[in-house]
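Could you please consider the sequence and fold following this short note?
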Amino acid sequence: MARRKKIYEGKAKILYEGPEPGTYVQYFKDDATAFNAQKKATIEGKGVLNNRLSEFFMTGLTNIGIPNHFIRRLNMREQLIRQVEIIPLEVIVRNFAAGTMAKRLGMEEGTPLPRPIVEFSYKNDALGDPLVPEEYILAFGWASQQDMDDIVSIALRVNDFLAGVMHGVGIKLIDFKIEIGRIWDGDFMRLIVADEISPDSCRLWDMKTNRKLDKDVFRRDLGDLAEAYTEVARRLGVMQSAPVNIGKPKLIN
């Protein structure tokens, strides 16, 4: 497919104008970032893995009736998606204490939570995506009360699906984050899952060893990130072997 006009470039993906009205082409980059882009590297093959894994998860959501922006994969790095109006929130679902939650509450990482906890952060890189309470979201008009009820329902359904899939291949779903977008059918508005679902946006631990199979490998210098992502893809049957030309991380300025 010929490359179209660039619409937006983020830390891990680029959006291009789609071939049809109401569509985008989403391109997955090999860039890895952490600590609000203070740490950066290029991980060869990462974009290929995330494209294939996000396709796998989004297709699974479609199959169980959870609407999302995915239409089809175009090639190893690109997929065709629906154009949506992104709600400026990251929706975080936690099943075990880890990361910032463990630090905030002084909990040991890996502690099971009494039930899945849904949190929200305001999507703003300059501010470091701060956590926000539901009262802020309603007061500033980022979403309505009905939207919030629907978002929580969607997030918990996604959690049930992902946790079940991961449990089946010996992986604990520690936490994950998704984004939600609005689409319109005439005057009727729907909320759908958008952005991506991949090891970039999930914490995934091996059930037996607690080995990390997510972006914490890069954040904490725990080994080869591409190898960890490839292990997730291999267990899920998404890719039988590592993509061609996967190498060691290369630091970039």
User: Anything to note?
Assistant: The helical segments are 46-63, 99-105, 134-139, 145-167, 216-219, 225-236. The first helix runs from residue 46 to 63. The first strand starts at residue 6 and ends at 9.
